[in-house]
Specification:
The protein is built from 5 helices and no strands. By secondary structure, it is mainly alpha-helical. It has one domain. The mean pLDDT is about 75. Helix 3 runs antiparallel to helix 4. It is globular.
Length: about 120
């Protein structure tokens, strides 16, 4: 029997979406994710890495809020949210790689409104 993939930050409500997708459960799962994000967003500006992580998480939170608002709208709106979340996953990995990555991140977003 194949072992299920171990989740790094398991949020059971999200895992359950695979077998129980409904608008109500989707809203519940996203709320659970946003609650976890709000707990993690302790604005510790002691390092560039923490500042970068907080900015990424704030944008993840914004995208999740959009997902809930747009769940019954056109599919292209949800596709925009998903694309942004995928891109943010790569940014989060990038800024965690080291100081030079964080400097590049801050140069890239210096004039970006979303942070």
């Amino acid at each position: 029997m194949e072992q299920p993939e171990k989740l790094r930050y398991p949020i059971q409500a999200v895992v359950d979406l695979a077998t129980n997708f409904s608008r109500e459960h989707f809203e519940y799962a996203i709320t659970q994710c946003r609650n976890v994000i709000s707990q993690v967003l302790a604005e510790d500006n002691s390092s560039e890495q923490q500042i970068a992580r907080v900015r990424v998480l704030k944008y993840v939170n914004l995208q999740l809020a959009r997902a809930v608002r747009w769940v019954d709208q056109e599919a292209d709106l949800m596709a925009l949210v998903l694309r942004s979340l995928i891109e943010l996953r790569f940014w989060a990995h990038f800024v965690s790689q080291g100081q030079s990555s964080r400097h590049q991140y801050f140069e890239k977003i210096e004039h970006t409104v979303w942070c």
